[in-house]
């Protein structure tokens, strides 16, 4: 007998409450939503072991992925992370106070600044990404490599629909 999860229970309850309603989309959306919460909690705990919040890791990792010397403008940062400019300014301030990033004048724009990883920020993100990927590998362990690839392909197909409409 196949194991049942909380989404199965909810769908069964809806089938009783409104038998004519096709609730099959809940099988996917409900599970993705619940998995997202489990993943976020696990990621927070994993990064927390390094005294790092997920948002801090996101900013540091985004800078790290930029070509050396690992610098971006605040606008490039907030656009890549889908947060407001005010939120990004606050995040940069906090990371700068922790000596993980530093602001430099942008030589291409005298009014602009560039945010750059410090050596401490680079060392921390290098350690954190290894911890983060190990955690993600553990989270996906119930799936075979082939199943993981199939799921990644299907999720990409679905996500592209939203990302392409966001660009319009």
Summarize the structure.
This protein is 67% helix and 10% strand.
Descriptive account of the structure:
With 168 residues, this protein is mainly alpha-helical. The protein contains seven helices and three strands, in the order H-H-H-E-H-H-E-E-H-H. It has helices spanning 6-17, 25-48, 54-65, 74-81, 85-97, 119-139, 145-166, and strands at residues 71-72, 101-106, 109-117. A three-stranded antiparallel β-sheet has the order 1-3-2. Strand 2 and strand 3 form a beta hairpin. Helix 2 (25-48) crosses helix 6 (119-139) and helix 3 packs across helix 6. The chain is elongated and about 65 Å long.
Question: How are the elements arranged and paired?
Answer:
Elements: H1 6-17, H2 25-48, H3 54-65, E1 71-72, H4 74-81, H5 85-97, E2 101-106, E3 109-117, H6 119-139, H7 145-166
Antiparallel strand pairs: 1-3, 2-3
Helix pairs in contact: 2-6, 3-6, 4-5
Entry keywords:
3 strands, mainly alpha, 7 helices, single chain, 168 residues
